Amino acid sequence: MQLGIRLHDVNAGLAPELQTMEARAAKAREEGFSCVHLAFAKVIKGVTFDHCALNEGLAMHTKRVFAQNGLDVAVLGCYLNLAYPDPEKLKEIQSRYFGHLRLAALMGAGVVGTETGAPNPEYKMDANTHSEEALGSFLRGLAPVVECAEHWGVSMAIEPVWKHIVYNADRAVKVLDAIKSPNLRIILDPVNLLYPGNADDQEKVIGDAIDKLGEHVAVVHLKDFAREGGGLRSIAAGTGEMDYTQILRFMKERKPYIQATLENTSNGNAVAAREFLQRKYGEL
Fold it and tell me: Which of 93, 147, 214, 247 would you call most buried, defined as having the most Cβ atoms within 10 angstroms of its Cβ?
């Protein structure tokens, strides 16, 4: 297991000079992480990362920054709505994915990662989000992006999330079966599959996801959850109700050296979360 962190969680809220990509990368290495989840727009301010901005020089500079710090880019994030209802806006969104995939090839990133959207401009769960019509919209938006991934020889990875169109393991299997591409992979975030209605059955939910999606999992996201206000709040690993036994055993027994990035950490608890997971992993 190789543990990483979302780069925008590193040095968050500190002085501007500590929030550059370069400063955050150095801090991530100092804190003992070996890889990162990188979202350009969240670590390089003042730039709209459209297709024009996603150029070869940016890729080379980024590659050099992380190499100097002994870090891999496990996930190059492009979390935009591929089920956006307006066709022209969708084309613009897809062009951003095309640019990220090109840069992923140049940088050697593990995957370009995304969630699976909602059938509305607000990217919010509504009455239609889990419908077959919404799934069809997402598949139409995703298909050209996966074709581009095949062109560049890189992987596109989708992340199932209860509040989005691909909300459980069965829904993710439908996407994999429809697209039928070895370049389409899965980011497995166990907490994102939970909601108040199934949180008490987390062992069953996570086991089902591992059984059905395990061979397609490229990266794991690790965080925890707490019940709050009738919902679930995401928090740092080791600080809530999450049982990590299944996911860590899956990683240890079936995914040698898999990269897993921490989410919802703060400057004060990131190292503790890493140490907690490493200790649990070692106890298996």
Answer: 247
pLDDT of residue 134: 98
Phi, psi of 64 (to 5 degrees): -65, -40
Task: Please spell the DSSP secondary structure of 198-226, one letter per residue.
Answer: TGGGHHHHHHHHHHHHGGGEEEEEE-EEE
Backbone angles phi, psi at 20, to 5 degrees: -75, 160
Kindly report the pTM of this predicted structure.
0.96
- How far, CA to CA in Å, does 141 sit from each of 94, 130, 196, 203? 7, 16, 30, 32
User: Kind of pairing, strands 224-228 and 231-235?
Assistant: antiparallel
Query: For the chain, which residues score pLDDT lower than 70?
Result: none
Calculate the alpha carbon distances from 54 to 23, 104, 111, 162 in Å.
Answer: 21, 10, 16, 30
Which among 168, 164, 99, 98 is positioned nearest to 137, based on CA atoms?
164
Q: Count Cβ atoms below 10 Å from residue 159 Cβ, excluding itself.
A: 22
C-alpha 6/C-alpha 142 separation (Å) is 24
